[in-house]
Amino acid sequence: MNWLVTGGAGYIGSHIVQAFQGVGLGVVVLDDLSSGHAEFVPDDVPLVRGSILDTDLVAATLAEHRVTGVVHLAGFKYAGVSVDRPLHTYEQNVTGTGRLLAGMAAAGVDKIVFSSSAAVYGTPDTDLVTEQTATAPESPYGESKLIGEWLLRDQGRATGLRHTSLRYFNVVGSGSPALFDSSPHNLFPLVLDALVAGRTPRINGDDYPTPDGTCVRDYVHVADLAISHVAAAQALAAGRDLEPVYNLGSGDGVSVRQIMTAMANATGIPFTPEVAPRRAGDPARIVASGELAARDLDWKMRHTLADMVQSAWEARAR
Questions:
Q1: CA of residue 128 relative to chain centroid, distance
Q2: Catalytic residue among 90, 121, 141, 219
C-alpha cells in the first residue's frame, strides 16, 4: 500500500515522507521542486518531478506506483505574497487541487488528507480557535485553502471520496538535521538568518495585552505535525470515520519574546531584539485547540519550545 505525498520534497512534506517510512508504509513523492529540494527525498522513495496541474501525470503516477491514498501539500504557501499574486495562487492551489482530484478519480484513488491552513480563519474574534470558529480568510492564500476544503467536500458527496483537512498555524523545528525550513517568510528562518549574518532580530510591537506585551501565536513542531498526517492517512485506510477538518493546535501558544529568548539560548548568540511599532491587523493572541485531533489523530505537543528552536538551529547550522 503506497501513499502519494504531493509537495513531498518540501519542508513539511519531507517530514511526512519520513513519518510514513517510520511506520513501514510505502510512499511516493510528486513535486515540481519550485520550492522543494530533491535532496530532501530519501533515495529509496520514488520522486516524480512534475506538477499537480498535470492531470495525466497525476493519474499515471497513481497507477504506476499502485497508490491507494494521497496526502496533498503541494501549492503556493505564502499568504502575504498571495495578495500581490492572486491569480498564481488560485491556479496553484485551487486549479491544482481540482486537477489532482480529477487524476485521483481517473485512477480510482478514493482517500486524501489535505494540508489546509489556519489562514482560513482570518483574524478570529476568539483567542482559542476551534473547528467551529467561523472561517473568514483575509488573503488569496487563505481563500484558496478554504476552497480546497470545499472541493474535497463536494467530491466526497459526488463520488464517495474519503477525506479530511488539517488546519494549523506556524510549523517550526526540524525532525532531522538534513531537513530545514528554507522559507524566506517564516519567523524561525528569518531570525536565525539574521543572527548568523550579525543582524538584530525585530519584534513588531511590545504593548499588546499579553503577559510580556508581545503577540502570542501557535507554534507546532514539524515532526509532531507529520505524525498526525500519517495517523489521518491510516485512519482513512482503515475505513474509520473522521471529521472533515481538524485543528493541529497547541492550546496555549508562545509569545514572540519567548521565541527570541529561546533563540538566544539555542544559538549562544546573545541579543536584545529591536522593538518596532505594531503591524496593522496583528491580533494580540491566536491559538488553536487540538482536542479533536488529540482524540482521533494521535495529536500531541511532543516538543517544547526549546526543542523546536534547538532543532531548527541544528538544521540551519549544519
A1: 19
A2: 141
Q: Which three cell numbers stand for residue 212?
A: 510580556
The pLDDT tens digits for 108-130 are 999 999 999 999 999 888 889 99
* 189 membership: H or E segment, kind and range: helix 187-196
Measured from the Cβ of residue 124, the count of other Cβ atoms closer than 10 Å reads 17
Q: Which tens digits make up the pLDDT trace of 65-101?
A: 999 999 999 999 988 899 999 999 999 999 999 999 9
| HSE toward the beta carbon, residue 90, CA cutoff 13 A | 9
For this structure, is 141 an active site residue? yes
Contacts of 43 (CB under 8 A, 6+ apart): none
Q: Are 193 and 264 in contact (CB under 8 A)?
A: no
Superfamily of domain 2-171+219-247: NAD(P)-binding Rossmann-like Domain (3.40.50.720)
Rounded to two decimals, what is the model's pTM?
0.95
